[in-house]
Amino acid sequence: MKIILLGAPGAGKGTQAKRLAEKYEIPHISTGDIFRANIKNATPIGVVAKSYIDKGQLVPDEVTVEIVKQRLQEEDAEKGYLLDGFPRNIFQAEELDKFSNVEKVVDINVDLDKLLARITGRRVCPKCGESYHVTMLNGSTTCSHCGGELVQRPDDNEETVKSRLSVYEKQTAPLIEYYKKAGKLVTVDGDKAIDEVFKAIVEVLG
Ligand code: AMP
Question: Measured from the CA of 167, which atom of ligand 1 is nearest?
Answer without folding.
Answer: 10
